[in-house]
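dude i think i finally got it to work??
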Amino acid sequence: MPIQKEQLFTALEEAGVPPVPHEFSVVPQHQVISSKTMTEIRDFIDVFERVTTRLDWQKTVTVLAPEIARRQRAEVCFFSAWDFHLPPDQDWQVIEFNDNGSGLLFAGLINDLYYQIFNLSQDTSLQSPPTYTELIGRIIRYVKQEAKGFFEHWPQGLFLILEDEEALQKGKFRKELTLLQDLFHHQGWKAAIASPEQLRWDGQQLRWEGQEISFIVNRSTDFLWQAEIFSPVQAAYEAGQVYVAPNPFTYATRSDKRLMERLSLSNWDQELGIQPEERAVLSAHIPETHWLRPENIEELAHRKEEFIFKPAQGFAARGLLASSQVGRSRLRRLLKEGAGYVAQKKILKNRLRGKNSENSELWTDLRVWAYRGEILLLSGRASSRPDKLDLSPPGGWLPTYVHQD
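look at this
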């Protein structure tokens, strides 16, 4: 086990993952998801795709969105990800959807290398995970599908990976962007990584260092492009001159956490076009969620122990508030400040006994990446805290596999 762990960490670093465990944490254990659960998750994702791409849904949920988010777009991001909790005493639950799901390439490497180094092929109860080569082959297929659907002819400009400047300097996934850039280069495509500040709109084309940009893989967490630095991207997007995914429309119709209220509750089903069989699936697997409003502050304050409070535009657990951190005055202040928050019913995580010197307990989740309803990869994250995502050792990203039928 110690030798295999070191082999894994070395192999990951050689493949392009930041040094483990000093800069990026990986748990040298694995979790297994039942084939029944995965079948149900596939069905859920199909329902999610049907509902959120329906015109009734899109028109209704974007009524109050900024104008740029109300313009219907066809792009779909290939690293869309759903996060699940698998509590021991109830059905699995969808915690949130991310149109900006970090870790796809790293997770592919972790699953593949762990499976090889720990000789899991000898365990006939497990389905073989996709190899990293298979994973990147599928990613390229998806990118080609998106490009061919958007452009009349194959784009000749840059395939640009857009990320916030701070994340490019010290983000945990900056090396993953380099892996993606290399992947594009191997296809013979011109590719670059840049921040919004580096882009220019000349009135006809979006450019980076004078080069025309055609296709943007958007990693920025300014989901609605509210900062002035996004004005070149916004101009190109509005002119229809550049492919961008995710974008304000996909955020407003798919990944804004406030949408979880309408997915979890049946109040708006008629105007949203949600069918009874779809409602059954959604209600079974999405915890009760409420968008913070003046009229529900009293109820949410009274029931606060049942909920966790999340910023609508939060990411990586930033801005997350435990029930002990909120009360009527805090909720009113959040509302007055215009900080969009949702209250979501607490859902326990699955527990994993850590195989380390402290024999500590870890709490795990499940992340599933899918593109247009087709599952691409699954992974997990193990936290040393049951109520918060803490990926510092002994926690970290967790190799994840499916049980064989």
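The CA atoms of residues 24 and 333 lie 36 Å apart.
im so relieved honestly
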